[in-house]
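Q: Two folds, back to back.
A: First:
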Amino acid sequence: MAKRTRTRTATDRAQYSVEAEWTGADLALLEELKRAEALLPDDAPRALLSVRLSVLTDDTTSPVRQELDLRKLALDRGSRVVGVASDLNVSATKVPPWKRKELGDWLNNRAPEFDEILFWKLDRFVRRLSDLSTMIDWCLKYGKNLVSKNDSIDLTTTAGKIMVTIIGGIAEIEAANTSTRVASLWNYVKTQTDWLVGKPAYGYETAENEDGRVVLVIDQDAYRALHWCRNAAMRPKPASARRMAKVLVRAGLCGPGLTTSTMLRRLRNPALMGYRVEEEKNGGVRRSKMVLGSDAQPIRVADPIFTEEEFESLQKALDRRAKNQPTRRPGGATKFLGVLICHDCRSNMTVQKNRVNGRSYSYLRCGKCKAGGHGAPNPDEIYGKLVGDVLRVLGDEPVMTREYRQGADARKELQRLEQSISYYMTGLEPGGRFTKTRFTKEKAEKTLDDLIKQLEAIDPESTKDRWVAVHNGKTFRQHWEEGGIEAIAADLLRVGVKCVIKRSKVKGVRAPRIHMKLVIPKDVRDRLIMKEDDFAEAF
């Protein structure tokens, strides 16, 4: 019998917690660097610091050290730090820069605010050659530079571009080797009776026995919950999965987030018989199936919660109550999910389908009102009314697209004009080079007037890197007629437009009366601006 000492997660015996802890010395150095940074000229290059870490151990570079080293690098380069994109506990192999929470926001929405991206080492930034190539293309398009403290990277030179590609290839090879080792480990542990790695199925938890080995033991609270559910399902009048979930949550045996689908998935898991399982996804439906060993027999990894007879009888009882629901559509049954909301509970309206006596019925219902708020029949009629209201209110709005404009050329022209004006003003002072004859003085004064007019004609905004909204020649009515309902739904969800559905009973009529109210944000015109996804092809 295994001796239970302490429970913990199965993936790692030494759980890590990614925390950026600043010591007093670190904070003092940070203030010193900021004071030195404040002395830089106003036109100093603007640096964004990218700090990333997947696992914090004694061998890794802490986020604090990365930031301080990068601030020193920025100061040495004469750059002013305008922000720190800190993405901790994020894998560079799985999450590219533009998908990270903080760095992704800078890349997608705040590009005009910085001129270069500084990172500690290339593998702290990317680990895939394709991601690196995408970032190089993005930087060249927007006039940005990539700078690494510990690698020879500088996109302003041809040699720097070649070097960054070579280093990125090495980083991708290293990541691929790590992925191969992990996949090999998982394939190995699936065939073992010992519990080596992985998250236990519901009903079990990990513990150490006398030999210090990790084993699976039965979670007593889960054991009670599962056996109560089986007894409830085997009654002459069986309880529904929804009822089971409510009772378990109220009893404190399960968390408040327990759903009916999760409840059923737990009860149908073969792991409850103590066998090793793996998850299988089919059309969006998640199911666990047993893993067979080399002898074509199930692999037992723990004591069973249910015997095979108990498990089979439970499955038959669940099958008797199961509804033969229509297969899910790949795009979802509700066409305006997230736009249609309930007036009473403010939850999303979703399409429910029932089949009675061979006929299929569809209706919209909410998630929190009792009985779904009695539903709203004829979803297609509601969709049509919503589309009509949206076209009437927003259909004539022009389609504006966001474009990036660099101010480098305008800044150069501004600097040239200012230097030229200063040159002629100095020459026109008493004793200056243009005051020796009347002819040279008049010519210089005319040239100076022309230069001043050119300077005044330059829009100060044009000297800044900025986003501008440009009309693409279409209205949203034309745009939506080309894209269909899917385009309307996507734009309404993006903009934050809501349609509130209110249902009221009608005496003597089963179907309720439907009232619809379109809720449009005040800044809808700004929200409607289309933003090009620079990284769409990279997914």
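A: Second:
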Amino acid sequence: MSVLGRIGCGLGLGLLGYLVNLAALEVLPGVHLLLGPLLVLTAGVLFGPVAGALAGAVSGVRTLWLWGHPWGWLNLTLEGLFVGVLRRRLTPVVADALYWLLSPLYFLLTYFLLADIPTSAILVAGVKQAVNGLLAALILQVLLLIPWVRGRLRPLLPLPLADTSLGRAIGSALTLGAIIPLLVVGGSEGRERYTSEVRQVDEANLHAARVVANEIESSLAHARHGVSRLARTLSASLSPEGALPGPNFLEGELDAFVTYSPEVLNAYVGSPEGVALAFSPRTDVAGRPLAGTDFSDRPYVQQVRQAREPLVSDVFLGRGGAQGPLVVTVSPIRRDTRYAGYVLAAVDLPRLRRHARAQVGDTQRRILVVDARGGLVFDSAEEEPGQVRSIISTALAQALEKVGSGGTGTYEASGEDAVRLVRVSTLHHFGVVEVPPLGWRVVVQQPGTRLQQDVERSYFALLGTMGLATVSAVLLALAFSRTIVAPVQGVSHAAARLAAGERTARASEAAVDAPRELNQLAETFDRMAWQLSRQLEAIERTSREKDAFLSIASHELKTPLTALKAQVQLLRRKLGDEHAQRLDNVSRQVDRVTRLVNQLLDASQLGLEQLPVQRTRMDLSEVVRRVAEALVSASPLHTLELEAEPVVGEFDELRLEQVVHNLVSNAIKYSPTGGAIEVWTRMLPQGEVELVVADRGIGLRVEDEEQLFGRFERGDRRELTGISGIGVGLYVSREIVRRHGGRITLRPREGGGAVATVRLPVAVQPEREHRASHAPQDEGRGPHHS
């Protein structure tokens, strides 16, 4: 198909995907199941990455309205592109799973860093989009395994789908058959649970609103009754001219009123002109007297002139004895028709707020009391409100217009509807109760966070169930396919056992009842396995013969080397100091060859399981001191830092001297620029002694730690060029330590260099194999390759 044809198919499938996405299935509130990705992946698998990307871009337009952000659209586009790129190497499910394994980086860069979306919402968004994509990939894979579909689309099928296995086909079909019913049943159950949770939240909000409304109504009734009674008392105390009693009398009455009225914050008696004649308490928070304060600008001063009964004001900003929002109840002082002033009591709103909190007891709930004009009497979420606020033109006010007293509703706060990854988290659920006859409304609300958490739990529980069903389906598919292709699997398993070293592995038993061709395959495999076993036995026999040859050759070499050493010593005495330096060089080279021959002899004896260990009671620290001082003193570039704590135990002195010699010489050898060689011994509390040799040399790679203990292994690093050695020192050292019941480890050292650590039991133990990977608790260990 031409490039333009593939692009056209991609656009067509993308448009069809957009139409399918219009009917998004809401599995849980705010969690949608989109079927558009099925068309997007179809375009990517059949027509390539460009078609997949175009289909994703067109189909994903629907998510802009559905979720309120562009990142789902871009994600769907990238998914189509990614699966299209990998279609020739991987099946749709595997390719899409790989995409979603890499997707956390995408979500971090877009949702978290660019959009600043909360982590919990990102998690839900990522999981739900991954489920959409993987489900679509699974459906597509099953559809493309149907013979009728394969016959018509075979020229377009990529290799992983054109050459598929029976086990994969059965597994995909069973998995899809297990997941779809779970989605339907789980989604229905999740929505029912969400509806039940919403009902419980609404009932709790309404109950709390009624409790708070009753307390407000009771407090206001008490305050109104108190000012009314005080007004009547003062009316009876008016002079014949209609004047109020003196300040002392007024203050006494006010003090008694405030003292016995816990719902009252303060009170005063005002003149007809609105000037405070007496106040209780006397001063404000700054200590200034309140009597004489002019309140004539207050609306209630004008309203009370015409009133016959106590009235309650709307919320306003207080001054004088009370700071912040204030509500007062006012009663006129009259004798017949003559107006002599008024009595005012400020309602203790902080007390009402505290009482409301105590009644609700839920820190997530928020209590708002709104007066008839939309002013906020108090908000339980505010500790010290400093100004009068209004809810007019807010989302809450618009929602309250649609709900009467005793009703419930929801609203989205300003700005929270920009990103609707999980819709329930942006909603506020409220219940409203009116306080008659004031026209006040008590609103108790709580955010949808708790419901969101419930939705998330339901969703992840559904995913968990789907995961278990998927695993069960895969296991069932494997069991079913094994029954069908058991003979072939028997040959495969026998081959795997043979590769693992089990030379007796045979496949004939698995194919006893199989067709002739499979039986012949099993018999052919068995003949091949028998021939391989014979060849391996011949190789092992040759290896043993090689070890025997090394042992004999090493013994034969030791005799002339001993004689050569003796002759050098004789020449040294006869020739004097004139040729001393040359003879010393010859002697050192003879010693070096002798050590190499001894190492070869030890290696061959180990291969033949003939290396002896003779234990005696000794102090290991003395051996360490003797060997380390001799070796480091011969190297002018190195210094020795020795901490030799006495460690007495039953050891083979000659063999452990060989181990110390190998480790210290390695530390010197692989520190070509010089430096400190750190050696210490100590007794450990668990009945072990520890020997540590550390350097600041070239170090080693982590992957070389175990390899370097192999026979004739020195590593393949460039830094080793020019450093002599045959690669048996560490091999021999580890075997000596093992025969002492101990263990030896190598680790890189922090800051450069390496550390070799040997741990040996003090008491005699049966010879046994110890894993060299048991690292000590000290700093990292190092690279010594003999």
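Q: And?
A: Residues 362-452 form a domain with the Beta-Lactamase fold (CATH 3.30.450).
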